[in-house]
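can u do me a favor
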């Protein structure tokens, strides 16, 4: 989840703040950011809404582009 870590850092948010806002542990957030675990679809949607970015961005670090 390349974009998750990227957007969190761009917004100057620490893991603890984001984890508390999303009602997950800081450890879980770290695992998601480092690819050790994958979040549920429901959590992906929640993260997408929290950061106001697409799920695609959270996963790849890039917005979806039509060709």
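np, heres the sequence
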């Amino acid at each position: 989840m390349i974009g998750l870590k990227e957007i969190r850092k761009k917004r100057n948010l620490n893991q603890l703040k984001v984890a508390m806002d999303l009602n997950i542990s800081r450890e879980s957030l770290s695992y998601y950011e480092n690819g050790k675990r994958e979040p549920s679809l429901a959590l992906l949607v929640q993260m997408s809404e929290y950061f106001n970015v697409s799920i695609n961005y959270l996963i790849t670090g890039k917005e979806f582009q039509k060709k």
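The chain has a mean pLDDT of 94. hope that helps!!
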